[in-house]
Design goal:
InterPro entries: WD40/YVTN_repeat-like_dom_sf (IPR015943). This is Two component regulator propeller. The protein is mainly beta. Helices cover 9% and strands 49% of the residues. It contains 3 helices and 35 strands. A hairpin with a 4-residue loop joins strand 5 and strand 6.
Length: 402
C-alpha cells in the first residue's frame, strides 16, 4: 500500500508540473548540430538538414532519413559508426544508419501528463555504445535505463563521456538547480549547483566540466568536485544567457548566447558578434570552424574571425505552410468546382496546381482585370495551389478544391 501511495503521489506530482516542464524545456534543447565525415547535420526548426563541407551543398535530409515531414527534432547525434541518432518530440528516438540508409525506432516513452517526448542529448561510450536521454532517464541503445536522480522536476539537457569513460550529465532541475551527474559504473553521484539550470555541457582535455547555465558560465573540476562561476563583470565578456558550449581541438571552450559567440582560451574570454547573429542556440567545434545553429533557420560558420551565413532548406510541408502563412493580396475561394480569385491588382494569368504539383488549369486574363475564374470540376481535389501573375509580380495561395 505504501508503494502504491508513493507511486500515485509521484504521478500526480509529475502531471501537475508537466506544463512547467514543457514551458522551460521547449526550444532550449541545444544538441542541434553534429558532424559525421564531410557532413554537418542540423536538427533545424524545419526538419533535418545536411550540409556538405566539400561543396557547400545544403539539403533537407528529413525524408532521406525516413522521418515524417512534421517531425520536431529535439536532438541529432552522429556516432563513430556513421549512425545518426535523432530525437523526435512527437514520436521518440530514431537511428538512421548512413551506411545502409536504414532507419529504426530505438525508444519511445512519453512523459506522464504530456503528449511530447523529451530526448535532448546523446553520447557514445568508449565501447561505441550510444546513450541517450528521455527527460529524467538515460538509456543505453541496448535497452538498459536508469533515472538520473530522485527529483522528478528535471530534464537531462546534455551528456558526455570524459577521458576515463565516465558519463557526465547536465540537468535542469526546478527543485535543485543545475546538476552535474557522474554516472560512473551505474552508481551515479549528484553534484548540485544551486540557482542554475544547465542547458549544455562540454568536457575539456583536463576532464574539466563546462556548463552553460541560465545564470552564467560554470566550470566544474571533476577531480576536486569544486565549481567556479565566471562573472561577466569580472572576466570582461558580455552579460547574456549563454545557452550552449563546446570544446575545440586546441582546448578552447566556445559558448553561444542568442547574440554573442564567446571563446575562452584558458586565460581570457573573447566575444564575437555580427549583424544578423540572432537566435543562436547550438554550437559545434569542427577543426578550424565553429558552427552555430540559429532558430532564424540559418547555419553559421565562424572561421578566422569571420562569420558566414548559410540558408537552410525546409521540408515540403514547411514550404507549403510558408505559402499558406504568407501575405495574401488576393481572395481565393473554391466552391462547386469553380475557383474564384479577386484582388486589387490586375491579374494577367491564373495557374492551378494539384497536390502532385501538376498544372491542371491555366487561365489568361484581359489587361486590368482584378478577378479570375477557373473551372476545376474533376481536375483536382484536396489541397491545391493557385499561382497568380499580376501587376506586382507573382503570388501563390493554398486553397481546398471540392
Amino acid at each position: 500500500m505504501k508503494v502504491l501511495y508513493k507511486l500515485l503521489s509521484v504521478m500526480l506530482f509529475v502531471a501537475f508540473y508537466a506544463d512547467a516542464f514543457a514551458f522551460y524545456a521547449d526550444g532550449r534543447y541545444t544538441n542541434r548540430l553534429t558532424k559525421t565525415g564531410d557532413y554537418i547535420f542540423v536538427a533545424s526548426e524545419n526538419g533535418l538538414v545536411r550540409y556538405d563541407k566539400t561543396n557547400g551543398e545544403c539539403v533537407n535530409f528529413t525524408a532521406e532519413a525516413s522521418m515524417a515531414d512534421y517531425t520536431t527534432f529535439t536532438m541529432v547525434y552522429g556516432d563513430s559508426r556513421g549512425r545518426l541518432f535523432m530525437g523526435s518530440q512527437e514520436d521518440g528516438v530514431y537511428c538512421c544508419d548512413l551506411n545502409t540508409g536504414q532507419t529504426a525506432k530505438m525508444w519511445s516513452f512519453g512523459m506522464f501528463g504530456t503528449d511530447k517526448f523529451y530526448y535532448f542529448a546523446a553520447a557514445e561510450d568508449p565501447e561505441g555504445v550510444v546513450v541517450y536521454s528521455d527527460a529524467v532517464f538515460y538509456i543505453r541503445e541496448t535497452g538498459e535505463y536508469s533515472p538520473v536522480h530522485l527529483s522528478m522536476v528535471a530534464f537531462i539537457m546534455d551528456m558526455e563521456f570524459d577521458s576515463k569513460g565516465r558519463l557526465w550529465i547536465a540537468v535542469s532541475d526546478f527543485a535543485y538547480g543545475a546538476l552535474v551527474y557522474d554516472a560512473w559504473q551505474s552508481s551515479g553521484s549528484d553534484y548540485f549547483l544551486e540557482d542554475n539550470n544547465a542547458t549544455s555541457l562540454a568536457i575539456d582535455r583536463n576532464d574539466r566540466i563546462w556548463l552553460a547555465c541560465d545564470n552564467g558560465i560554470i566550470s566544474f573540476d571533476s577531480a576536486t568536485r569544486q565549481a567556479t562561476r565566471y562573472d561577466p563583470g569580472e572576466y570582461g565578456f558580455p552579460g547574456a544567457d549563454y545557452i550552449a558550449c563546446d570544446v575545440d581541438d586546441d582546448g578552447n571552450v566556445w559558448f553561444t548566447s542568442t547574440h554573442y559567440l564567446l571563446k575562452y582560451d584558458g586565460e581570457k574570454f573573447e566575444s564575437h558578434t555580427v549583424y544578423g547573429y540572432n537566435g543562436a542556440i547550438s554550437v559545434l567545434c569542427d577543426g578550424d570552424d565553429v558552427w552555430v545553429y540559429s532558430t532564424d533557420n540559418k547555419l553559421i560558420r565562424f572561421r578566422d574571425g569571420e562569420f558566414a551565413f548559410i540558408d537552410m532548406p525546409a521540408t515540403e510541408a514547411a514550404r507549403v505552410e510558408e505559402i499558406a502563412d504568407g501575405e495574401r493580396e488576393f481572395s481565393v475561394r473554391c466552391s462547386g468546382g469553380v475557383l474564384s480569385v479577386s484582388g486589387t491588382k490586375g491579374i494577367s494569368r491564373l495557374n492551378v496546381y494539384d497536390a502532385a504539383g501538376r498544372c491542371v488549369r491555366s487561365v489568361v486574363c484581359n489587361d486590368g482585370e482584378t478577378t479570375a475564374v477557373a473551372e476545376l470540376s474533376g481536375l483536382c481535389s484536396g489541397v491545391c495551389v493557385a499561382e497568380i501573375f499580376h501587376d506586382g509580380g507573382r503570388t501563390t495561395s493554398l486553397f481546398m478544391a471540392d
